[in-house]
Amino acid sequence: MASPQAAHLLATPDDVEAQFYEALRDADIGKLMAVWSDDDDIVCVHPGGPRVVGAAAIRASFEAIFERGGIPVQPEQLHRTRSLEAAVHNLVETVAIVSAEGLQQAYVVATNVYLKTTLGWRLVAHHASPGSALPPHENAEAPSTLH
To answer: In this structure, which topology does domain 4-128 adopt according to CATH?
Structure first.
């Protein structure tokens, strides 16, 4: 089992993000958990799911997802905000889905939060919205009702 201590020193939030999405595509739970901080307060929200807090709960949630195999996901439309110690990435996850109609795509809006630690940059939060069959536009108008 890989742990953050066993992971490569991840020099940038982009390095962490690349490893995170590679682990999702490969259904590699060790690689996936190696990008997370070892802090007890890490959090993950899967599309349409509840908030999952802590490494053990996050690991269990991804193990259940990976029972069906890897997730054919590609991060796109990345918007970055970064300070010396923290980074927030908002992006669109394009997911390939094979259905009776053939290959289709679904789109999920996600936010990833990274903190700089003594072990390099680590993921502390991943929040993904429910999917959509339509791709979100780069500069879409705000909806009239926000909540």
So the answer is: Nuclear Transport Factor 2; Chain: A, (3.10.450)
